[in-house]
Amino acid sequence: MSRPVVEEEWPEFVQLKEQVISLWFELRLFEDLYSKDKQTVDILNATAREFFYSLGVSLPNNLLRILAAVYDNSKTGSNANITLDGVVAVSGTWISLTSHSKCECLLKSVSNPRGKLRDMRNKRLSHLDRRVLLGQRQLGSLTLAEILLLAKTAGKVLNEISGELFDGSTGFENPIRRAPSDIMSVLQNQLMMNKIREHVKAKTMPEETAGKILAEGLWHSRAWQEWCLANKLNPKHYLP
Description:
By secondary structure, the chain is mainly α. The protein has two domains: 3-166; 179-230, no CATH class. Helix content is 69%, strand content 2%. The chain is built from eleven helices and two strands, in the order αααββαααααααα. The protein has helices at residues 3-9, 11-34, 38-70, 84-90, 97-109, 114-126, 130-133, 144-166, 179-201, 207-216, 222-230, and strands at 75-76, 79-80. The longest helix is centred in the first third of the chain and has 33 residues, at 38-70.
């Protein structure tokens, strides 16, 4: 079946797919920047502490918001919502009974997260719940492993449908190729530049050497390696 036909006749599927792509993008960004190792976080704090603190707060909030929406009820009162169970419920019109049953089993394989997700979203994001903020009521929480399971299940369901519709799938789990590594490279370059300026200012590094290091590409520079060796310094001593 052609994608234009699906986009026109089943826009709910397309919109839900876009939400799950966004979910995985933010999940991978959070993992790569905040969950890999302590040094990565130290680099973030040493370069743009306020910005990355704000990003570290907003990413989990966005993950919670998207998950709560994806796993929400397909109807809230008289309002219709685009949700995973809503798309699965009508998928029998588009895919085989076997694939439809598999999608239902995938949804049942995760413990029903709807109540917990809705409560967390409503009390933490949509409203400043007094009892929660004052510590008089404890909300449930989600571990990173639980978030990953919910995200993977959503991707599997949508790919089961895509497999029948388009004979293909979406790489939900790999939405980012170089963004986090590029960010870290830029930040490490900035830290190295700061360290070179310190050495030049302290007259422990000749300006000519600093210029050669810059021309050779900073931490790829042979001149940097040789200067660090001559001064008995670790070539990565610019890192926090």
